[in-house]
Amino acid sequence: MISVVILTLNEEGNLPRCLASLSQCDDIVVLDSGSTDRTADIAREHGARVFTNRFENFAQQRNFAHEKIPFRHPWLLHLDADEQMTPELWGECCEIAQKDLGPPGGTASATRRPPPDSPAIYDGYYVAPRMIFRGRWIPHCTDYPSYQARLVHAARFRFIQVGHGQREAPGLRIGTLRASYLHDLSAAPEPHWLAKHRRYAAGEVATHLAQRRSAPPPRLRDLLSRDRLTRRRTLQRFAFHLPFRPQLRFVYQYILRRGFLDGLPGLRYCRLLMHYERFIVEALREAKAKR
Predict the structure, then answer these.
(1) Strands of the chain, DSSP E
(2) How many DSSP H helices and E strands does the chain contain?
(3) Interatomic CA distance for residues 165 and 58, integer angstroms
(4) Residue from 227, 290, 216, 223 nearest 252 by CA
(5) Phi (first) and psi of residue 3, to 5 degrees
(6) Does domain 3-184 have CATH number 3.90.550.10?
(7) Buried b or exposed e, range 197-221, using 16+ CB within 10 angstroms
(8) Which end of the chain has less neighbouring CB within 10 Å, N or C?
(9) Residue 280 in contact with residue 245, Cβ under 8 Å?
(10) How far apart are CA 114 and CA 120, in angstroms?
């Protein structure tokens, strides 16, 4: 079996669906950032344990879970409240956990690595979400599969903050799972989505400016890398130097990535992505004006 941790802040509308998808899990932890609605009550009603920690960024919050929360199992799946487990992913995660040679019934203190011939030779696994918008899976305009590190060995795995999100710390061994989880992009009203992504844009700009000071410039050859994540992250860095960024994002997602095949939900989502790119342009302009 595996443990599951869910990050929350005022998620009373989304959390019940997430928890309902975890009916087979015997260790659900909700790590809350100070909700003022019924989020904590709903979690406890579903048998989850609730912990509270002030949110600084996603990497800090997830690392807090690894370091401070006593999970019942060494392997931990990270979910957000607007995401849901699938039977296929649950089965694959349990298979990984059963093959791991860590102490049975362990906690996050188990640090023993499996031998090289073990199937569980990784510190964590990438999982690709299936993005749902207005009730429809929109794989083309969300670049499916777009992988994130979600199934991790809590004692061995750490995150670092990148933009508004997080990625695995350098030097970790990461595998890839076949199954996906569900992420409902339209779980919140559109004004809420826009406000959240305006905050995300500020984080992306802060990361970009920090990379310009400390990291080597992106390399054109990395756009042709065989590694999908390398290509994606390199493209994101080059995008800061492009004119007409919102319009180019729409052309890329809707036409080049064939987002038009995702129907009307795909069109609406690509238009939202244009707004997000405009927020980034505005945040970058404001940051440069302050320098």
Answers:
(1) 3-8, 28-32, 49-52, 75-80, 83-84, 124-133, 136-137, 148-153, 159-162, 165-168, 174-184
(2) 8, 11
(3) 6
(4) 223
(5) -95, 160
(6) yes
(7) bbebbbbbbebbeebeeeeeebeee
(8) C
(9) yes
(10) 7
- Identify the residue whose tokens are 């809707």: 254
Nearest by Cα to 28 from 55, 7, 59, 57:
7
Of 14, 22, 11, which is closest to residue 181 (Cα–Cα)? 22
Quick check: 199 and 146 in contact, CB under 8 A?
no
pTM of the entire predicted model: 0.85
Structure tokens at 204: 């992306």
Residue 47 DSSP one-character state: T
Per-residue pLDDT of the chain (291 residues; tens, 9 = 90+): 899 999 999 999 999 999 999 999 999 999 999 999 999 999 999 999 999 999 999 999 999 999 999 999 999 999 999 999 999 999 999 999 998 754 443 443 444 455 554 545 899 999 999 999 999 999 999 999 999 999 999 999 999 988 778 999 999 999 999 999 999 998 888 998 999 899 999 988 988 888 788 778 888 888 888 777 678 778 888 888 889 999 999 999 999 999 999 999 999 999 999 999 999 999 999 998 987
Which of left, alpha, beta for 3 (phi over 0: left; psi -120 to 50: alpha)? beta
Is 59:159 a contact under the CB 8 Å cutoff?
yes
Residue 189 structure tokens: 């009203």
Domain spans of the chain, in order of start: 3-184, 190-290
* Burial per residue of 168-196, b for 16 or more beta-carbon CB atoms within 10 angstroms, e otherwise: beeebebeebebbbbbbbbbbeeeebeee
